[in-house]
Automatic annotation (TrEMBL):
GO terms for cellular component: endoplasmic reticulum membrane. It is found in: Membrane. Keywords: Membrane, Transmembrane, Transmembrane helix. GO terms for biological process: ERAD pathway. Its main location: membrane. It comes from Pelodiscus sinensis. Coiled coil: none annotated. This is Ancient ubiquitous protein 1. The chain crosses the membrane at residues 7-29, 44-61, 181-200. Signal peptide: none annotated. The keyword ATP-binding does not apply.
């Protein structure tokens, strides 16, 4: 939706040519990030290369204290601030996030989600994730008890307890995202809209 304020609308129209150039450039680089992620096996080298390429897109990822991370942990529990939190954490450590909503198939896989197949109830979902976590060769799980993205300042989401029933020990993760002057999350927007809008903005 376009801003109703005349000054903001004028600023948006003046910025539009620059924004469109940024959008095309970032989409071009983003395709290469996706291809590199598909071509290289999951390793420290791949995460480093993708992290550098993401910094060109304006996505800088850092962790405040790597020593707080327990290498033996099988389940990460994090707050949910954007549609791409799982991809960002994957730049720091290997993990899998199950797809709870959305259409399975290529779109689900390309966004970096793990498909579980037909899961009828929460109990079946928890049992499936327990079985997944029991195999030590699998990457840790990354779960979001909020189940939807929120900026943490406007509105409050119900906190689901089922992610804590998978294993007795979990690693809490606190995510924080910053963007000067412009809101990070478009409330009630699709992930594709958020991606295009974020690529358009400076």
């Amino acid at each position: 939706r376009f801003p109703s304020d005349g000054f903001l609308l004028l600023a948006l129209l003046l910025y539009a040519p620059v924004g469109l150039c940024l959008l095309l450039l970032r989409l071009f680089i983003g395709v290469h990030v996706f291809l590199v992620s598909c071509a290289l096996p999951d390793s420290l080298l791949r995460r480093f290369i993708v992290r550098v390429m993401c910094s060109v897109l304006g996505l800088f990822v850092r962790q405040s204290d790597p020593n707080l991370r327990d290498a033996s942990i099988r389940v990460y529990i994090a707050n949910h601030v954007t549609y791409f939190d799982h991809s960002v954490i994957n730049l720091l450590t290997p993990c899998n996030t199950p797809a709870l909503n959305g259409t399975p198939g290529f779109i689900c896989w390309s966004r970096g989600f793990m498909e579980l197949g037909a899961v009828g109830s929460r109990a079946e979902l928890v049992d499936s994730l327990k079985m997944y976590s029991s195999h030590r060769g699998n990457p840790p799980l990354l779960l979001f008890p909020e189940e939807a993205a929120t900026n943490g300042r406007v509105g409050l989401l119900r906190f689901s307890s089922w992610p804590f029933s998978i294993l007795d020990v979990i690693q809490p993760v606190a995510l924080q995202v910053q963007r000067p002057l412009i809101a990070v999350l478009l409330l009630c927007a699709l992930w594709s809209t958020a991606l295009l809008w974020g690529s358009f903005l400076p």
